[in-house]
Design a protein that fits this description.
The chain is α+β, with helices and mostly antiparallel strands and 419 residues long. The protein contains twelve helices and 22 strands. Strand 15 and strand 16 form a beta hairpin.
Length: 419
C-alpha cells in the first residue's frame, strides 16, 4: 500500500469581481496566487453562481445541464496568451456529458443535470408553478440542499489531469473569459408561449464565486516549483468550433471544407440541432440520416475510409472517442470495455447523434500525438456527406476539430502553446 503525505486540505470560495453577469456579456475569472505553499487540487475548480428567472410564464424552467449550457464561448489565457478558445462550447460540452455513466450524471445536480421525472428537481429549484412536491421527498431534499445555486465546470487539462496547479510557483496567471448565453438558449417556456412571455423572460446571475480545494504543504509546493523551473510540457486537447451553418433536412449532399493545418489532428466532430428558441433541449441532437461519408486530406481522396463511411460504422466510430471520457487512463479503458456510457445504440441513432471522423492511429484518449498531420492549408480536409432527403426543415450544423496541443514552460515561465 502506498503512503501519501500528511497535508492540510481546505475548500476555498472566492467571490468573483464582478459577481453578476448578463446575457452576451463576457465574465473574466482570474485564478489567485494564494500562499507560497498552496496548490490547487486537480478536478476541483469550478465557478458557482445563483440564478433566478423572470417571466410572465409561471411554468418557465431551465434547460438541462445548465453549467454547460449557460456559457456559449470559453477562452483561456496564461498571462494574456490565449491557449484555448471555443465558440459554441455549450453544444459540444452538453454532448460530451451525455456519454458519462448514468451514476455519474445523476450526481451532477450541482452542475444542472437533472434525471428526475419531468426534470422536477429543476422546477423545484427555480420555483416553477408546475413543480411537484407531494410524495417527492427525494426531489424536495435535493432542491433544498442546492437551491438556485449551480456551477460551471472549469475542466481545462491544466487544472484536471496533471499535477496540482501551483500558480505562485509558476510566475504566471491563469485566466478564464466566459461569454454567457442568450436568454432563449437557457430558459424554456411553455409550448404556446406568446410574445409577452418571451419578451419578459430573462435570467439574473448573482453571487458568482470561484470554488476549488487547496492543499497547503511546503514540500509539495517546492517539488512542483522545481518542476516548473525546468522544462515543463503540459499536454491538452485544443478544440475549435470551425463553423456553424444552417442546412436543410431536404438536402441530399453536404460538402465541408476545412482549411486548417495541424501537427496532430485527432478528429472532426459534427453535431446537428433543431432550431428551437425558448424550447431548447440540450440533450437531443438530430440524426440527419447520413448514408455515406467520404474524406479527402491534402488533396488525396479515399482517406480514413477506403470505401466511405457507411451508416453501420457510425456507432463504432463515436465509441472510439466517447465510449469512455474519464481523464484517468485506467477508468476510461474500463468505461469503454464495460460500455458504461449513458447512451445506448438506439438513443445514439435517434436523438443523441453525432458524426465523429477519427483521425488518430490509436483510439486511446490518454495518448497525445497519434493524430493525423494536416500540412496543406489550401487543400486541408474535404468531407462529402451523402444523406437521405427528408421533409424540409432547418438544422444548425456545428463543425469542431480537435487537435493535440501542448503548453511549454521553461524557467518558471510560459513559453508557447503549440497545436
Amino acid at each position: 500500500m502506498a503512503h501519501g503525505a500528511k497535508v492540510i486540505r481546505q475548500k476555498v470560495v472566492i467571490v468573483n469581481n464582478p459577481s453578476t453577469i448578463n446575457q452576451n456579456e463576457e465574465l473574466r475569472v482570474n485564478f489567485p496566487n494564494l500562499g507560497p505553499h498552496d496548490v490547487i487540487v486537480p478536478r476541483t475548480a469550478r465557478l458557482a453562481f445563483d440564478i433566478s428567472l423572470v417571466s410572465d410564464d409561471g411554468t418557465r424552467t431551465l434547460v438541462q445541464n445548465l453549467g454547460r449550457a449557460i456559457v456559449k464561448k470559453i477562452m483561456i489565457k496564461i498571462s494574456g496568451n490565449q491557449v484555448l478558445s471555443i465558440d459554441d462550447t455549450d453544444i459540444i460540452g452538453c454532448y460530451q456529458d451525455l456519454w458519462r455513466a448514468k451514476s455519474e450524471r445523476s450526481a451532477l445536480v450541482y452542475q444542472g443535470i437533472d434525471l428526475s421525472a419531468d426534470a422536477n428537481i429543476t422546477k423545484l429549484r427555480i420555483n416553477a408553478s408546475n413543480k411537484v412536491a407531494t410524495n417527492k421527498a427525494e426531489d424536495v431534499a435535493i432542491s433544498t440542499a442546492y437551491g438556485s445555486r449551480y456551477y460551471i465546470p472549469l475542466d481545462f487539462e491544466l487544472l484536471e489531469s496533471h499535477m496540482p496547479y501551483h500558480q505562485a510557483g509558476l510566475g504566471e496567471f491563469l485566466e478564464y473569459a466566459l461569454t454567457f448565453n442568450d436568454y432563449n438558449r437557457v430558459i424554456k417556456l411553455k409550448a404556446d408561449a406568446d410574445a409577452d412571455d418571451k419578451s419578459s423572460a430573462k435570467y439574473t446571475i448573482s453571487n458568482i464565486s470561484l470554488e476549488f480545494d487547496k492543499i497547503t504543504d511546503s514540500q509539495l509546493a517546492e517539488e512542483i516549483r522545481r518542476k516548473y523551473m525546468g522544462r515543463m510540457v503540459y499536454l491538452y486537447t485544443n478544440i475549435m468550433r470551425i463553423s456553424k451553418r444552417v442546412v436543410d433536412k431536404s438536402d441530399t449532399i453536404w460538402n465541408i471544407n476545412l482549411n486548417n493545418t495541424a501537427k496532430s489532428m485527432k478528429g472532426v466532430l459534427l453535431l446537428f440541432e433543431n432550431q428551437a428558441d425558448w424550447a431548447r433541449d440540450t440533450e437531443k441532437f438530430y440524426n440527419p440520416k447520413i448514408t455515406k461519408v467520404e474524406v479527402a486530406i491534402d488533396g488525396q481522396t479515399s482517406q480514413v475510409y477506403a470505401q466511405g463511411l457507411s451508416t453501420y460504422h457510425h456507432w463504432d466510430e463515436i465509441n472510439k472517442w466517447l465510449g469512455g471520457i474519464k481523464r484517468d487512463k485506467h477508468t476510461e479503458l474500463l468505461s469503454k470495455d464495460l460500455a458504461l456510457a449513458d447512451v445506448s445504440i438506439g438513443e445514439y441513432l435517434t436523438d443523441k447523434y453525432a458524426l465523429w471522423i477519427d483521425l488518430r492511429g490509436i483510439d486511446d484518449n490518454s495518448l497525445h500525438g497519434t493524430g493525423r498531420p494536416i500540412a496543406n492549408a489550401n487543400n486541408g480536409i474535404t468531407i462529402q456527406i451523402t444523406k437521405t432527403a427528408e421533409t424540409a426543415g432547418a438544422l444548425n450544423m456545428y463543425t469542431y476539430i480537435l487537435n493535440d496541443a501542448q503548453l511549454n514552460f521553461e524557467g518558471g515561465r510560459f513559453i508557447e502553446a503549440l497545436s
